[in-house]
Amino acid sequence: MDISALTSIQNDYLNSLTQSNARTETKRNSFDSILESAMKMITETNELQQKANNEEIRFALGESENLHDLLTAQTKALTAVQYITAVKNKALEAYKEIMNMQI
C-alpha cells in the first residue's frame, strides 16, 4: 500500500494552514504597528509640549536669555499638535465612512 500520496496531501494542507496563519499574523502585526506608531506619536507630542513649557518657564524666570530656544521649542510643539490633530481627523473620517457603508 502506497501512502506517499497521503503524505503529499498532508504536506499541502499544512503549507496552506501555515500560509493562512502567516497572513493572519501579518494583519495583526500591521494593526499592532499602526497602534504602536500612534502611541509613539502621542508620547512624542506630549514630550515636545513639556519641553516648550519648560523653556517658557526658564525664559520667564530669567534662567535663559536665548529667545531662539524658546521659539524653536514652541514651534516644534505646535507642529506636532497640528500633525497629530490632522491624523486624528483623517482617522475619524475613515471611521465614519466605514460606519456609513451599507452591507
User: Judging from the principal axes of the Cα atoms, what is the shape?
Assistant: elongated
Number of domains: 1
Strand content: under 5%
What Rg is obtained from the alpha carbons, in whole angstroms? Answer: 26 Å
Poorly predicted regions are: none
Question: Can you give a write-up of this model?
Answer:
By secondary structure, this protein is mostly helical. It has one domain (4-100). It has two helices and no strands. It has helices at 4-61, 67-100.
List the helices and strands and how they pair.
Blueprint lengths: L3 H58 L5 H34 L3
Helix pairs in contact: 1-2
Defining traits:
mainly alpha; 103 residues; 89% helix
Short description:
With 103 residues, the chain is mainly alpha-helical.
